[in-house]
Amino acid sequence: MRLGFSLPQFGSMEQQLDQVAHYAREAEKLGAASLWVGDRVLAAVQPAVGYGGSGDTIPWQMNAALDPFVALSVAAAVTERALLGTNTLIVPWYPPLLLARSLTGIDVVSRGRLVAGFGTGWSPDEYEGVGVPWKERGARLDECLDVLESVWTSDPVARHDGPHTSFPEARIGPKPAQRPRPPVYLSAFAPASRRRAARRADGILPVAVVTPGGAYDPAEVVAAPLDQVRRLAETEGRDPSAVRAILRVNPAQGATPQEIADVILRTRDATDVEHAFVDLLYLVDQSTEQALDLTGRILDLAR
Which part of the chain is the Luciferase-like domain (predicted)? Predict the structure, then answer.
């Protein structure tokens, strides 16, 4: 099992965001196989939809967020081996050509280590903040996937006339270091998103929430949605075995390193998932050194 960790990008690390390079460098030395970022632009004081799609609050840890492209670029510059992932980048917020430029740049400067994880998010307030209609999120994601595929794999890039963006036939470089393109993973929680992943993605991004003393069933959380997407992929004429998964392990406050490691090991033993990462968002309340200590302890327990 490849095991990665989130970069210090949110919340309690607000006063130490300049430590991203230090964390990335040292986590790779400890054995982290990947480093990950998320995507937030605001935390509404009175949200239309609370975190996770329910309730009326957003965790305070999301009150501050370092730009994901900045964080990954810094990590790319100070590491050599760790994959650099987005889980998830809220693709409908971005003009497709500018998104292609940013992601290609990260793949090029890291010598082919980008893992592009995309989703549509859950916050209508953030869509309002970036000036994108909430109801267009699915269509904009689909169009952006079209543009990325074209920009990454064609030269020249064909003219595009879509519902939300248009551009002429053009030379657009550089191309990604990975051929034919970086792997694309999609969130796949709703039926429509699973159908999209079956048609278009290299894999999906399930989430395992780790609560103190809580139960975890890898068959329900990981194997069932992955099997469903693979069956759908087969109906699309794709090789179902080519659809993979990267598990995000999302520990709640108070979850222990042993409980986190147990989720990782149970996933390894019960599924064919070969890559997971731990989101440290709710576990770190002091410093980058605390994050590195947790990283080392979890790596040791999960080996």
Answer: 10-272
pTM score, whole prediction: 0.95
Q: Say how far apart CA 86 and CA 68 lie, in whole Å.
A: 8
Least confident among 34-38, 53-57, 65-69, 107-111: 53-57
Least Cα distance to 241 among 264, 219, 272, 269 occurs for 272
For residue 287, what pLDDT band results from cuts at 50, 70 and 90? Answer: confident
DSSP per residue, the chain: -EEEEE-S-BGGGGGGGGGHHHHHHHHHHHT--EEEE---S---SS-SS-GGGSSS---GGGS-B--HHHHHHHHHHH-SS-EEEES-EEGGGS-HHHHHHHHHHHHHHTTS-EEEEEE--S-HHHHHHHT--GGGHHHHHHHHHHHHHHHHH-SSBPPEE-SS-EE-SB---PPPSSSS---EEE---SHHHHHHHHHH-SEE--EEEE-TT----HIIIIIHHHHHHHHHHHHTT--GGG-EE-EEEEEPTT--HHHHHHHHHHHHHHS---EEEE--TTT-SS-HHHHHHHHHHHHHHH-
Look up the CATH number of the domain holding residue 84.
3.20.20.30
Q: Which domain does 291 fall in, by range?
A: 2-302
**Number of structural domains found in the chain:** 1
Residue 14 has pLDDT above 70, yes or no: no
Selection from 44, 49, 37, 46 nearest residue 13 by Cα = 37
CB 203 within 8 A of CB 183: yes
